[in-house]
Each structure stands twice: as C-alpha cells, then as structure tokens.
Amino acid sequence: MGKHDSILLVEDSDSLAAVYQAYLAEESATLTRVASGEAAIRAMNENPPSVLLLDLKLPDMSGLDVLQWLNGQRFDPVVIMITAHGSIDVAVDAMRLGAIDFLEKPFDGARLQVTVRNAMKLSRLQNLVEGYEAASSRSSFQGFIGGSLPMQQVYKMIEAVAPSKATVFITGESGTGKEVCAEAIHQQGPRANKPFVALNCGAIPKELMESEIFGHVKGAFTGAQRERRGAASLADGGTLFLDEIGEMDMDLQTKLLRFVQTGRFQRVGGSAEEAVDVRFLCATNRDPWQEVQAGRFREDLYYRLYVVPIHLPPLRDRGQDVLAVAQVLLNQYAKDEGKKFRRFSPDVKLVLTRYRWPGNVRELQNVIRNICVLNDAEQVAVDHLPQNLINQLDELLPERETRNDSDLEFELVDPSELLDPSDVNEALLSSPLQALWLTEKQAIEHAIEHCDGNIPKAAELLEVSPSTIYRKKQSWEQTTAD
C-alpha cells in the first residue's frame, strides 16, 4: 500500500473494531475508526479515505444511508460493506449503490486483508484513470448523462475514434443510447458541419430498405412516381448511421458490402453508378458475432464493419447514473408539462436504483414522463410511480430492519389510538350493504386520514404492506378517471 492510502472503519462495536484493527495492523495504510454514521460523514468531509469499511447496522442510521449520502459527494472511496448473517439481500442493494464488495460476519483476518488489499488496488487504478482524464470525471458528454466509470470509458472511446474515418460498430441493449453515441462521434469529428443521416434497419420493411439506402429512379417499382435520393446520397461528405443493422436482409447485405468497400452504388432501377464520401457507423442490440455464426449476418460484412467496437453498458450497470439521468429528465418533463416536480423521495430513489431497467434509458424516460403527465407535486412519491413499478414494490422496497425509521416518517402506533373493533362492527351492521371493494376503499381511506396521510403508518394499523395500499389507490384513481 502506498504512503497516502487511508482506511476509514465505521463500526459501533468496540470489541469488533479492535479485532479488525488488529487484523489490519501490518498494513501500511492509515486506519481511522469511527462508531456512527454521523461521525463517518464528518470524517470523510475532513479527510476522504481511499477505502471505506462500512458496517450495515449503525446506532444512528443505516450504512445504506451513509452510502446514499456518499453518492452525492465529489470524492469516491472504494466501499466494502460489513453485514451480519441474513442481510445479504441488503448488501447486494448496497453494491448496486456503489459498494464493490461485502464481508459477512464472522470473517477471519485473511479474508479482511485480501478484500482490503484488492480495494486499495482498485482505488489506485481509479486514481490512475482520473489522472488521464482532463480534470475530473465528466457528469455529461455530447448528449449522454452520467459520470460512472463505464460511461467515462465510453466518452474516452468516442473522443479517440471521432477524428478517424474508421467504421465504428456500436453494440448495446435497446434503449442504451446507440444513436446518441453515433451522433456524438459525428459531432466530435471533422465532419460535424456535414450531414448526419440515421436509418433504423429494423423499422423499415425489407422491400423498401434498398430504396431507403440507395434511392430509386422514377418507375423503378410500383409507386415510384419520381426519382428519390437515398440516405447514401444525403450523407455525402458526412456520416451514415445504420441502426439495428442485424435486421438487414441478406441480399441487401451483399450490396451494402460493395458500397462500404468502394463508396459506389446504384439507385434501385438505375444503371448509373454514384460515388459518395461517407463515414459508416452501425449499431445492433444483438451480439454481431453470434449473428454471423447463426447465418443471419455476412461474415465478410462483419469484418468490414467491425473495425472499432464500442459497447454501451446497460443502465443497471451504471450505478448512480440512473438517479442523475432521472433528475435531468424530471427537470425537463416537469417544465414541459408545467408541473412543480423538483426531486425524488428517498423511497423512489431506492426503487429507481434497485429496478433492473430492461428498457434502459428509454424506459426511464417513459417512466418519468408518465409521472409528470399524471401527477403534480414538488417531490415524486411512491404512489406516483407507474403501475408496473407499483406491482413490484414488495420486491423493490422490502421491509428493511437496517433502514432509519425517520426516512419513512414511521411511528409506532399507540394502542389507545386504534379503532375499537366493536365500534367498527356496529357501524358495519347499521350501514346498508355495499360492494366489498367500496367497503375496503372506505376503510383504507379512513385509516390514511386517521394517520394524517402517513401511508406506511396506515398500513401498519391495517396489518397490510404499504405497497398493497399504493396499488389499490392507483387502481381506484384509474377507475375514477375511466
């Protein structure tokens, strides 16, 4: 370890802290120990450590709360969570929030030493990467939002390849921003003031695709009333981006190969050749080599196009970028819709970071737009979320013993405040019969009103989970709207 390496141990048990300090006594790093979350935050503000050994259960707050705070800071220590048996699910959540590893109690000295040494190596590597960057990690770049390490690598690749004329093959799941990447390459390069033409090969019928790329002459086919320029002509001097190129018909792939090799093509129905100067960028959400092996993509075209690959990471692998992207989208859509939204509640932030986002940034855009169109408040709450996320609340927001109760504004229910069952029975017997769902709705609304709008407290009183109330409220609101 280097002479500037430092470790901050956050452990409230004096005996355990002494054991851990003994395990690390031979390491040549400065070790500081604090016993609470508040003390850890003070210590990191004064002297940011290289490695943070963070216990999950602290006397004043959860280790997750410290980690949440840390994600908003400029410094970025390597975090190792310490958990008790049975808290592994929460530890995994912590890793999604930025922790790189976890230690499950009890563990021996060798396990701690190896984990800390690996963390120190990672810390030095991160510092090395930062040293090669201009000043500090960029939080945005050419249409992208996010400062995570995977995105920093993407930004560097774009800057490196942009001045070249080499073909770039962009891969990544749907919704990761492949067209944004292509436009960034174009804008960073010498062709920035020339046309950027994008074609989605998966959205155009295959019988029209050749005409879309190469154009056609008048009378080339039924409906060809006049001559038409294709994308190849329109992109002359600039960049031609072929998105979802794996969807292209095999026969057209042969013609595209010749065009890529020679820069020459013929319009559909024409005999004259045209020559253009274009830079080729292409993208797919599939594994291109697997497509070659499956016989759906020409191998010679693959080698011609797969010159410089850039892979865009899925949103679930970008750590806190999801919150940064969500905040920018919230600001934008709230302004567009004339709404008051400014921030997300702690629960919503946890939902956003725990959800897997199969549709990536595009899905996140739809979620935030849905929230802004259908609701209005200064803070996005759980019951503002779309139905598909509400349906997963039990998984995304399980009951967490390590969570600070104040985050939920939760209070223990005084038994004297509970409704008298005899009063409830008398009220029900004296009331006319009505639909069961309406009785349930009235009971839930009465409980929420009784708890001054505190849904978690109302759920505790009714002995149901908060997610059940959120789902039912949303279904009632939709029924009323219909």
From TrEMBL:
Sigma-54 factor interaction domain span: 144-373
Residues annotated as signal peptide: none
Annotated Response regulatory domain residues: 6-120
Keywords: ATP-binding, DNA-binding, Nucleotide-binding, Phosphoprotein, Transcription, Transcription regulation
Modified residues (4-aspartylphosphate): D55
SUPFAM superfamilies: CheY-like (SSF52172), Homeodomain-like (SSF46689), P-loop containing nucleoside triphosphate hydrolases (SSF52540)
Source organism superkingdom: Bacteria
Keyword Transcription regulation tagged: yes
PROSITE patterns: RESPONSE_REGULATORY, SIGMA54_INTERACT_2, SIGMA54_INTERACT_3, SIGMA54_INTERACT_4
Listed InterPro entries: AAA+_ATPase, AAA_lid_NorR, CheY-like_superfamily, Homeodomain-like_sf, HTH_Fis, P-loop_NTPase, Sig_transdc_resp-reg_receiver, Sigma_54_int
Keyword Transmembrane: no
Pfam families: AAA_lid_14, HTH_8, Response_reg, Sigma54_activat
Protein name: Sigma-54 dependent transcriptional regulator
Source species of the chain: Neiella holothuriorum
Source species taxonomy: Bacteria, Pseudomonadati, Pseudomonadota, Gammaproteobacteria, Alteromonadales
